[in-house]
Write a structure and sequence with these properties.
The chain is an alpha/beta fold and about 475 residues long. It folds into two domains: about 300 residues, Zn peptidases (Aminopeptidase); about 110 residues, Alpha-Beta Plaits (2-Layer Sandwich), CATH 3.30.70. About 35% of the residues lie in helices and about 20% in strands. A six-stranded mixed beta sheet has the order 1-2-6-3-7-17, sandwiched between helices. A hairpin with a 7-residue loop joins strand 1 and strand 2. Helix 1 runs parallel beside helix 8 and helix 2 packs antiparallel against helix 4. The longest helix is centred in the last third of the chain and has 19 residues.
């Protein structure tokens, strides 16, 4: 598929950027966006104790209060805690265009109060930042989408086709992924010509200055593996006996010391080609050098020191949870670790499991794939990332227009999402999906899934304005 040459020809606006963020929202819209954002942050939507239903119902009420008909805003899901909101903004009655589907997940990863400086479920404005779990991933974009729907409704705007907003459950984990459930059970509610997903791509900044806006063109595949060691255990006064914890620890050390092979695909090659024109000095030189055949090994090594570039160039696996032992005075009978992998397109979980077994190099350590329901299973081990979607000129024409208004000269760069998003589900369902947003996050301040998650106050409002302008430009032609 000749995606990247076309992608780059329409996308790369300029190599030199002299851009300033522009926000022209009225006071009422700013307050609306803030109120919705605060409301979402303060609803706990974690898998363990939270409820996406509560958040979905709250957003439904917002849209009903703004004048959306009740039949066009529904909350539904597989159980009482995993509700999804689907809202339809009706377009011109005689439109022949298929709807646009906007997706955004309401759930967030777990957050412990003792780890944070502020309460993760209390919306806190401090030092020009908004703090709270979900401020970067991805309640900021959920709030922007709901705000945009309300602003356009108040203006009496009629889009040139229907626009559907789906705010969903369990993208971060759990057994009730909302996008998957809707595709399988209520496809008629969300069927669309293409999908916009702000959970991937986005505005990249350095010290608040825009550097580029990334558009997700493909993504890695998510996979969890369980490393397990079992033995009979015994009395702790006999430490020379076989110890499950030591076997597991040594396996994890070997994993930490291992790097999967360097590899570029059509998307990541296009990314480095574009970024080499934006960056300067050694970094630009290294980006050009890894594109050579063969790639320059020293340049690969230097770029690999950056977590982002390392993840762009290879499959990555990291231990995320460890459990072991059953008593303080006994040798452990069982030791387990969860290893989370993000797999490059073109490779399968089965391939990676085989490679991990080689890396561990210990027959006492069993390596098993964990399925989406959290159970040990080989099901899905032959899954692959979906093919990048074809260029949609409507999407990119509107994107170029709005980027030109807000950040003149800002490069638009194709990216491979180094994590994973619900776009893999919508693309597999036959709906081309594109990932980007206007929420600027500094490259050295990425705190999604981490402690003290935050987004700049003005970055948030800029992203809300971008969302509004883009949707109006896309559907107002």
């Amino acid at each position: 598929m000749k995606l990247l040459p076309a992608f780059l020809s329409v996308g790369l606006v300029a190599a030199t950027v002299h851009a300033q963020q522009v926000v022209t929202m009225d006071t009422s819209s700013r307050q609306l966006a803030r109120d919705i954002f605060k409301q979402l942050i303060e609803i706990n939507t974690t898998d363990s104790v939270g409820s996406t239903t509560v958040a979905a119902e709250a957003m439904r009420q917002r849209l009903l209060d703004a004048g959306f008909p009740a039949q066009d805003v529904v909350v539904l899901g597989p159980n009482e805690r995993k509700g999804n909101m689907v809202a339809r903004y009706r377009g011109k009655a005689d439109s022949t265009k298929k709807p646009v589907l906007i997706i955004g997940h309401l759930d967030v990863v777990e957050a412990k109060r003792e780890d944070w400086t502020t309460d993760p479920f209390v919306f806190t404005e401090k030092d020009a930042y908004f703090y709270g779990r979900g401020t970067q991933d991805m309640k900021e974009s959920d709030a922007a989408s709901v705000t945009t729907f309300i602003r356009l409704k108040r203006e009496g705007f009629v889009p040139d086709r229907d626009v559907i907003l789906a705010l969903t459950a369990d993208e971060e984990g759990g057994k009730s992924n909302g996008v998957d459930w809707l595709v399988k059970n209520h496809r008629e509610l969300i069927d669309a010509g293409f999908v916009l997903n702000a959970d991937a791509g986005g505005l990249n900044t350095k010290k608040g200055k825009p550097v580029n806006i990334g558009v997700e063109a493909t993504e890695k595949l998510y996979a969890d593996y369980q490393f397990t060691v079992t033995n009979p255990g015994g009395h702790s006064s006999l430490p020379k006996r076989d110890n499950a914890i030591y076997h597991l620890a040594n396996a994890l050390v070997r994993l930490d010391q291992y790097q999967f092979p360097f590899e570029l695909n059509v998307v990541t090659r296009g990314y480095f080609e574009a970024m080499a024109k934006v960056e300067r000095g050694q970094l630009s030189t290294d980006m050009q050098a890894v594109l050579k055949t063969p790639p320059d090994a020293a340049a690969v090594a230097r770029l690999s020191e950056s977590p982002l570039y390392n993840s762009t160039m290879r499959t990555t696996c990291v231990a995320t949870m460890v459990q072991a032992g059953h008593a303080s005075n006994a040798l452990p009978q069982r030791a387990e670790a969860n290893v989370n992998c993000r797999i490059l397109p073109g490779h399968t979980p089965g391939e990676v499991r085989a490679e991990l077994t080689k890396v561990v190099a210990d027959p006492k350590v069993e390596v098993k794939l964990v399925n989406d329901a959290g159970a040990l299973s080989d099901r899905g081990e032959n899954e692959m990332s979906v093919t990048p979607p074809p260029l949609n000129e409507e999407v990119f024409s509107a994107l170029r227009t709005v980027v030109g208004q807000m950040w003149p000269g800002l490069p638009i760069v194709p990216e491979m999402e180094t994590g994973a998003s619900d776009s893999k589900i919508t693309m597999a369902a036959g709906m081309p999906s594109y990932g980007f947003s206007g929420m600027g996050i500094d490259s050295d301040d990425v705190r999604a899934h981490g402690r003290d998650e935050r987004i700049g106050v003005e970055s948030f409002y800029t992203g809300v304005e971008f969302n509004y302008r883009f949707l109006k430009t896309l559907t107002g032609q």
